[in-house]
Amino acid sequence: MKAPPNPSRVCSALAGACAGLVNGLLGGGGGTVLVPMLTGKCHLPARQALATSVAVIAPLCALSAAVYAMQGQLLVGAALPYLAGGLVGGWLGGRLFHKLSPVWLRRAFGLLLVYGGIRALL
User: Fold this and answer.
1) Which backbone phi and psi does 68 adopt, to 5 degrees?
2) What backbone phi and psi angles, to 5 degrees, belong to 64?
3) Which residue, 33, 90, 23, is CA-closest to 63?
């Protein structure tokens, strides 16, 4: 198997900064910026870009949650049911990830972006 490309540090830092900015401003969604940047600008294959995005977004979400908590905006009790469901969904998605072709992963991600965009506009 061919080794994945090694993106430049500038490209990687820029992608991370954009994802962090979106995550901090909108309370999530950094991956919607990060995945296209990783595949387009940093030239990572789709599967590695999606997996890398999860690894990057997790700490960004934790940081954003900490900032919101310090500002008194985080309702931990209200978040717990979503966290429980998210853990199950994350485990299931991680198990299914290697079974789907990169083409279908990209299509699913694209549909998610379109759906999110339509919901945001309406």
Assistant:
1) -60, -40
2) -60, -40
3) 23
